[in-house]
Structures are given as C-alpha cells and as structure tokens.
Write a structure and sequence with these properties.
335 residues, mainly alpha, 3-stranded parallel β-sheet, two-stranded parallel sheet, 5 strands, globular
Length: 335
C-alpha cells in the first residue's frame, strides 16, 4: 500500500484569505462550516479560523452569511403557530439561572417555548447542567416535540439534538482561547434560536468586570449586531441589558442553583434578585410577543409566579421530560 499525504482542504484557502483581512462570502463560509461540522479541521485549523474572524471583526454581511450556513448544516425544528418564544443569556455571570423560571411562566400562560440550552461555557453551571439536576435534558427531536406538544415548553441540552453541530465545535475552541468575538457570538446565538424555530427572542446581556461582556459600550455593540442580523432572518428580537457586577441568586453550581430555581417557583424568600430578573425578562418576552401591552409584562410574569401556575407547569414539564428529581444535598457543608 502506497502512503500519501492527506489532501489539503480547499476551504483552508478561505481561512488564509480571512487571516489577511479579506471579506468572505456565504459560499466560503459554507465550505468552512461544512468541514468543521464534519470534524475535518484540526485544532490548529479551528484556532486559525476563530482568530481570523476576531482580529478583523466580521461585518454585517459576513455575520448574516455565517449564521445562515451554520443553520443549514444542522437540524431545524418547526412548529405550528405564528408565535414561538425563546430567550438567551449571553452568559458569564454565575447563578443567573432565569431560563427554567421563564419557560415555566411562558408555558403556564399559554405561549410556546421549546428551549435548547448549553452546558457550562463561562460559568460554573450552564442552564442544561442545572436543569439536569431536576429532570432529564438529553432529549432527541421526537422527545422535544412530544413534550412541547403536551406542555407547551421544554428545556433540552442543545448538544443532544445537533441543531448547530459546527457551533458546538467552535465554542470549544473559543473557550480555550478566551476569545468571544462579536461576529461569532452573533452567529452562535442566532443559529440556535433560528434552528429551534423561534419567532420572538429576548436576549439577556449582563455586563461587568468578570462577565462575558465587560462594559456598557461592548453591550451596546453586541446588542446592535444581534438585532440587525436577527432582522435579516425575520426574527423579532429585544435585547435587555443590565449590570452584572455580582452573581444573581444565592448559590453557585448546578445543584445549588437548582435549589434557587425551586425557591423562586415556590414563592419562598431568599432569591429575590433572581425572581426579579426572571420577571423582567419574561415580561419583556410577553410584550415582544404581543401577549401583554407595553409595560404590563412584568406584572403578568410576577402574577404567574405568585399564583403558583408557573410552579405547576414546571412540575408537569419535568414529568414529561422523564420525571422530576430532588436536588442532591452534599454530605458535608459549611456555612
């Protein structure tokens, strides 16, 4: 058998072009993202692509092209109805587990919210990590459809359904390099939401010295890019920025953050900041979706919590996903 060098990937020529500051069209991004999704790139190639898109920021056309091809290489969900709501937190702030509270409120009030979430990227626990403490999250597409059709919402680990397989690979490299370029962040966020079938999206951007977004100016830049690119796909978006100098909630880590979620849903004292932020975001989503008049969303979200409807819906969704669990308690603890 004759040995030979592996054939050079044609898409790497486009990566080299981007390194030297040339703009890439959708066809070039399609070749690159297809090779990444098929795991044809080495870590060196991936690092070169991530860096090339960071040193010279992607312009709007490139962000749209990148987002479109990232959606095209993965699975895509569709749902009946004109309004499918979703929410995304840019992340980086420990304890900010608003999503399980928000999707319970949305589903309890009759809106459809099929939520896919990530494991931890830049904080001790991602939404999927924390939700997994309370119920199974490794749902495939048929399971997601079954739960949503039955209860109006779900939280599933995005890695189990492969809505954006290239994004999963790129995020791993960005984390190691500690690079969060605006263009790739926009592509990552919107790809997941478009692929999940969302029509109305609220994005939570908390900025602070240790958050993923470090300041108000950076938050404004990211907000403008997200809104502009989302518009190109017909995705109605509202970005809600706020200070993120401190963790939200009482605790950090999957099991403890799960306890905070239960405290809020049960209406118990101790995590008022988490409850307040969840109601702010849920209220913004109600208003964006036209479910309440402008200015009336927060009160609607709060009433859903205080009445117990959100807690009842959360339990029903957990059972539909495979059964609700009690958060574990450490054998040893010190307060």
């Amino acid at each position: 058998m004759e040995n030979a060098h592996a054939q050079q990937l044609a898409s790497l020529s486009d990566v080299r072009r981007r390194i030297y500051g040339n703009r890439l069209g959708e066809e070039a991004f399609s070749a690159i993202i297809s090779d990444i999704a098929e795991h044809r790139y080495s870590d060196v190639h991936l690092s070169a692509f991530v860096t090339a898109c960071s040193a010279v920021p992607l312009d709007r056309d490139e962000m749209i092209g990148l987002t479109r091809v990232m959606v095209d290489v993965g699975e895509r969900l569709s749902w009946p109805g004109a309004v499918i709501v979703d929410k995304h937190s840019v992340g980086g702030l420990p304890g900010n587990r608003t999503t399980p509270i928000i999707f319970s409120i949305m589903a309890a009030e009759g809106l459809i919210m099929p939520k896919t979430s990530s494991m931890a990227i830049t904080s001790p626990a991602g939404t999927a990590d924390t939700m997994e403490v309370l119920a199974p999250v490794d749902l495939d597409v048929p399971a997601i459809r079954r739960v949503v059709e039955r209860e109006g919402g779900c939280i599933a680990w995005g890695g189990a359904v492969k809505l954006s397989p290239a994004d999963d690979v790129i995020i791993g490299v960005e984390r190691v390099l500690d690079i969060d370029a605006v263009g790739q962040m926009v592509g990552s966020v919107l790809t997941q939401k478009i692929a999940a079938g969302a029509t109305h999206l609220v994005i939570d951007i908390l900025f602070g010295p240790t958050a993923k977004v470090r300041g108000a100016d950076a938050a404004e830049t990211l907000s403008t890019a997200l809104t502009s690119v989302a518009e190109a796909f017909g995705l109605r978006t509202r970005v809600m920025c706020g200070p993120g100098a401190e963790p939200i909630g009482r605790d950090i880590g999957p099991a403890l953050e799960a306890q905070d979620i239960l405290i809020v849903l049960l209406g118990e004292p101790g995590a008022e900041d988490l409850a307040n932020r969840a109601c702010e975001l849920a209220g913004g989503l109600f208003e964006l979706a036209g479910a309440t008049p402008t200015g009336g969303g927060f009160a609607c979200a709060l009433e859903s919590l205080q009445s117990g409807r959100a807690w009842t819906k959360f339990q029903r969704i957990c059972e539909a996903q495979g059964g609700m669990r009690e958060p574990p308690v450490a054998k040893f603890n010190r307060i």
